[in-house]
Structure formats: structure tokens, C-alpha cells
Amino acid sequence: MRLIEFWPDYGQGLLWSPGGTPVDSASLGLPDDLVQQLSLWNSSYDDDKLPIEGAGDPAWLAEGRLLLQHVRAAVGPAVSVVVTEPWWGEAGYRAVSLNAHLGTTDEACKAAIEDSLAAPDIAEAISDRLTLRRLLDALTAQERLILEWRFADDDSQSTIARRLGVSQMQVSCILSRLLTCLRDSWFQADQAVPASVGP
Known about the structure:
Blueprint: E1 2-6, E2 15-16, H1 32-43, H2 58-75, E3 79-82, H3 113-116, H4 122-137, H5 141-152, H6 157-164, H7 168-191
Parallel strand pairs: 1-3
Antiparallel strand pairs: 1-2
């Protein structure tokens, strides 16, 4: 399955490959009228239209969500069109409180999410924090800063891109590479049990 990211940007297009290069809308076999609509909509892109600092442009965002649906319908199952920012209406990016109820119809489902989580193992939590610290220390200062901006400060990829003077797609690629590297290193560290540990 081919993966494409939906992300408007200045003049470059709004569909991107995982490597950060623009994808020509016409090369996907999209109908000509949809290609024209996408081009016209993207040509009106401006950072102020995104809800980074304020509400953005609700009408422009609503049109973008509609165009995203049309693109997904037109490319079919052979192409996965993904988004990385919450304003495109993807449910996977909604924050949910730990106190939120798991359901509403059955009393058993009314427990809070936090009630369903297992009690933390203190030794495991300490070990995890030490492993994470070691992995983060191995990154460059800029890589740590990008992760801090994205996940601690909850900055959007566009905001980070403006700070760094690069495109949002480049930030997306950097984050993808960093998270893959951290995930792989985490699992390698998890597999490596010191010889002194044991029964």
C-alpha cells in the first residue's frame, strides 16, 4: 500500500511522500476537477489559516477536510492518505482525560479509564525512565529540542518548522526518523537484560 501525507504548504502541493517530496495529484489518477480544486485550495494556503495561534480559518479548514475525504475516496484502498495534525478531524488525535468514562450504557463501562490501567511497578518505572534518559542523551541537542517542542510543549509541526526555517514535511520526516530510532533502541535495550539481574 502506498502512503501519502495530506499537508498543505506554500506552492509545493498538499500531498507528500513519506520521504518529504511533493506528490503530483494528477499522478494518483485523481479526477481533473478534484486536482483543480486541490490546487486552488492549496494556493490560498497561509500559516494564519491553521489553528496554531488562534482559531485559524474555519471555512478553509472545513473545505480541506472535505477535500481530504474526496482524495481518499478517489485513490481507493491502494493508497493510504494520512494526516499528522489534529485540525483535519482525525479521531486518533483527540486527547481524552484519564477520568473519561469508557461507556455510557452499562454500569460496568462507566469506570474511568484510569481505573482500567494496571498499577505501575515502581522498579519497572524507574528502569524505563533510566532507559529513556540514556536514549535521549544519545540524541543531538537539536533532536532533543524538536522532541520537546512536539511532545512536551505540544507544538505543531508547522510551528516547529517555522522555528527551524524548514518545511513542515521536513519536520515530519525528522520526527518519524527520531521516533523509529528511539523505538528500535528501546526494544533493543529491553531485550538486553544485564547478567547480574535474575533469580
